[in-house]
Queue: 4 jobs
Job 1
Amino acid sequence: MTRNLTQEPDSMRVIQSILVVMIIAAFGFAISSVGQVPAKQGSPARPRQTPAQQPSSEKRYIVQVESSFNTAVKANELTRKLRLTYPNAYVQSPGGDETLYRVFVGPFNNREDARQVANELTGQGFAGVMILPWSSTSRKPASDQVEKVEPAQTQEPDDAMRRTLSSLSTQIGALADELKMMRRETERNSTMLELLISEERLAKLEDKIQDAIDRKAQLDAREQEIGRRSRNIQGELVLRGGLRRDEAEAAIRADLQRSLEDVHTQQAAYQQRVAELNDQATRLRGRIEALRKKLELLDLKSDKEEK
């Protein structure tokens, strides 16, 4: 038992020794690898050039379209048309003694690509198509200069359109206000006209009612007169005279009875007419009152809007 305990520490020490040797060997290998890297002193490290910065010895080509133009506007118009199919189309501004603008497509890395584009342009009906060599020292395209002018040129129609729309909007608003005012004025005038007509009708109805009342009063007076005569038949017999008093009295009574019945008939007719006229007048007075209130509300609303 004691021997086993003494053997275990010995084996652990062996393993630890092996690990230390391996760590030292790895560290020495790393140092030797670093020492093998050649270090150039006296000349600073040059930055690596990107493909765009590296000089190219290959020859490149461009395709000229429509020979030349007197103004940048025409050249730029053709460029916009070409860019629908060839995004690398551009306008070259005149330089030196030149005064003409030229339109190019490219550049292309080889002549075959340039020839293919030239054939396509010729097939599309473009004239003056030529393949020319291109170099990095060529004049910078004038497309940037032309594009900077275009926003100002296109901005003017936009500003004019906005001013026109603003003016139309103002005119429409004023027209809407005027129509609203005309509609309110028309409503007020129609209400006023209806009120005047209704008041005139009411006045005529009141006159008719008064005439019917007067006529009925006359009939009432006649009824009283007939009643007085009926009570004084003997006096009328004396005034008439004659030998046959009984027949004369019967005739007078019959005449007074017919007159009384006629008066009663007329009284009933006029009484019914007065009732009908009063009913019409009541409805008309209600309508007139409603129209007057409506006019007051319209005038009040108009005063508030004016303030």
Job 2
Amino acid sequence: TTTTVTSSTTTTTTTVTSSTTTTTTTVTSSTTTTTTTVTSSTTTTTTTVTSST
């Protein structure tokens, strides 16, 4: 009497690829610096009156 037992081993390989989405948000804040230079020009007028007698 010959008893043959064939044990069938099933190997199941499950590959899970997790896709990671990296979102990079770059916010550039533009700062505008306005420099106003006011040059006040002062004009000095000197009037010399020579009275000749």
Job 3
Amino acid sequence: MNGSHTIQTLTLPIEGMTCASCVARVEKVLKRIDGVEQAAVNLATEKVSFSFDPSKASLEELASAVNEAGYTLVVPAQGQPTERTSPLDGSIPSPQEKAFRELKREFILAATLSIPITAISMTMMSSWFHRWAPLTMDELNKFLLIATTIVLFGPGRRFFVSAWTIAKHYSADMNTLVAVGTGTAYLYSAFLALFPQRIPESISAFDLYFDTSAAIVTLILLGRTLEARAKSHTSDAIRKLMGLQPKTARVLQLGVEKEVPVERVIIGNEIVIRPGERVPVDGVIIRGFTSLDESMVTGESMPIEKSEGGLVIAGTIAKNGSIVFRATAVGADTMIAHIVKLVEEAQGSKAPIQALADKIAAIFVPTVIGIGLATFFLWLFVGDAGFVHSMVNFIAVLIIACPCALGLATPTAIMVGTGLGASRGILIRNAESLERARRISTVVLDKTGTLTLGKPAVVDVIPLNQSTADELLTLAASAENKSEHPLARAIVDAAERRRLPLRECGSFVSNTGLGIEATVEGKRILVGRTSFLAEHGINTVSADETAATLSMHGKSTVALAVDGMVAGVLALADELHSDSAAAVAQLKRMKINVVMLTGDNEHTARAIAAQAGIENVIAGILPNQKAAAIKRLQVERRIVAMVGDGINDAPALAQAD
């Protein structure tokens, strides 16, 4: 494609949609415009993705067409990016959260009034009520009129406004059905309440529909509130992903550090990172050495040591050592931004069943209104029922057809299902996922934090001289107690779990990336890599052999020397959850294929998989590659369930069935 005929694809927020009919209408409006090649609306995320030729249709024209249809296409201001390029501010509520709070308030008000309206309407039909009631029938009906008016034109106002906006464009949606049904019942009941003398003898004074109008508005609001709550949770997932990126960066300018907003960082800037800080953008190290915790991005459980020339990823945490790196990707080009984009694209995709539902919804409302009108005229002219009885039957058709089930049953089922799943540690993405769960043929499991505990722990203590395992661990923990390295903390934690008393540590020197030197009760202690011990003239042949064997089983190793002699080797690994093997065995008994998917290295992955009883392992891949791996399994006609922690596994979770 060239020049003026370049096709542009955008994903923008759209406001004012309330049901599947809205989805069909917006898509129809956009597709009618010359230059628009495709348009897909997602009601859950309240976004529309469309491809268009800017030479044939401008963004302003598209927005105008959508606005004329009764909705609002949120177009970014000139110069403002159409994709997120900076982290979300956790202190600012998302539009989905604001909508949820507003709907919650409206539902509470509607329910507060609807409960007494319904109670009074029901009890009015009993003889004992009128003997004890302090008000007459006319007074009670007028009270019900006032209360129902507040419900319909307070919390229920949104239905009438939306229905009127759509009607001006000769269209209808679910709001139309709610507005016509409840509005007709209300007007009919209000007329009889205000002019009781006009009530025909064939109609009882009890035959008013105030309770019906109020209850329907309240139930539909409950459904909308539950849907809004689910949408706000979807927004939270994106917010957490973007929250991995810090808001500021410490940039070197003419040798001076200056803290700037992360969106002002440009490619080529030199950025300083100190221990405990998150990396703000992607880049390559030009000075220094550090250990980076990349678990939230790659799934690697152990900190990765990085030095000059090493790549750093936005959102990862420096555990020790300071570095200076040059920015190579900023804003929407960082890996964390790509992860967010992958999740949003998966959330915005439309399942075939959803497309079918949209088509049905597009003809549902006019069909129901047509049936209602046919009922009215048939009773009026053929059944000779009179105007009032014909109107009652017309209202009955609309009320029965009012989408209580469509608006309430689905979100209720979703909330109950996801609530029960969450209480058991299961994240259920959407209703389609629940529907497809019974046909799952393959379960893909993340390693770090899912099969395993997600942090290093001492799993073996192997003495290589006359020392005991407890003595070896005590000396190592006493020496490492002043270090903040994750492996050092794991050694100290292991000693504390065994209730081993730590000894006084005198001198302490940390050699970043290699090991530590310390004096414990007069003994010279070295803890670190075997190469570090060898540099100090220590014979490490036995330690090298032991470390090599342990490494083959996916374990990290640390050697210990005391007064110039190798004393032993400590093995560390990410421990398996106590019930992981049993869960895998249960899945196999259900004839479900189990696959482990991880960003960790092959040896470590295979070792954990063997402990869990998993034969199929895909290791050493990045988050965007995880989603592709899931897709490959789906191409093989497998129904895939993904189990992960929701951060580094987010694209794969979104891609899974």
Job 4
Amino acid sequence: SYKALIGGSSGNFFIGKNDKTSGIGVQDSEFKIISSTSDAWNGEWHFLCFVSYESYENNKIIKKNKLFVDATQIGSTTNFSGGTGDIYIAHENESDGYYFKGLIDEVKFYNKELNETEIKTLFDSSAINCDPDCYEAGKKSVKRGDYNDNEKIDLGDAIGILQELTTSSTKYQLTSCKAILDNGISKGDGIYTIDPDGQGNIEPFDVFCDMSSDGGGWTKIEYKMDLELKNHFNDEGDKSRYLSNNFETVLSTDKILAIQKVSTEGKQQYVGECKNVIHYLYEAAETDKYRHAFGYKFIDNTESFSQRQDYTDPNNPNLIIQVLEDGCKENDDVLRSTSVMIKSVKVPLINVKSSDNGDSTDEFGSQLTKNPAWLR
């Protein structure tokens, strides 16, 4: 029979005490995850502190939750979920029977992790707002009968309720590989857990981080499979068109977009393999050299220019596309390739637009799995 000291308006979370066993605990979704039945309540003042935070250990984000009573830890768990919403003081929700009997002197919220030293300091400096005779030889206690008979909190019961928000935080902002590198906790190239949207709806997930190349801090965006080298259309002659299906990435679109939001740089090399398919320069037509130049679509569905030499787009000044090698200009039946470097936070690309594609001998593809995108 736990009664809430602090409760969520949804009724699925509270910090409270058990009025039958004198236990103190934290409850989440009707499951008591931290509890103690050995701490006597006995009408005395107690200092309760619940700390929920994330720790970075062995390249993983570990959730930790601790309950302190009078600056002594009485329980801990890694299994706890939180959220946003209204907070009720001294009751869990509007249902009858959920009101806490007793006085609450002060409530504080911090958006930072409190360590045990800070908790002890707060406990030692706590001032109780009550009559002088409520102290017994320096002991913080409450006189019997100080709670409401009607079990409902009122302004006189909640003396000095305070919400204190701090701007500092000891929690690492592990939003990306770059953030891990900047915080000095990189252990070199490898798999790390990141949380690009922080307190958003996306749970932390694993990525590969390149911590050594080009300054380090690059998050790898991989593809599930290659684009097969084959004829993709073979109908109605040449025309400018995208492939019917987008490329598949290992990470979901929402995760990649979240990484993009915390990134300022991106890079990807696209190597287009070809047989009889022009990817950029069309030497045979001097007056219309670039009418077969590929176009590129990115994961946010924006597109580059196509069928032209200059990919520079005044509407996307941070999208840079450079042709590194153009073997496909030979336009013959030999397997060749055209290599393009894309520098933009918009990567990865998810589709390509071609124009030289209508004959049965026109084949193109790309080893996407060997050329992932990188964000930083």
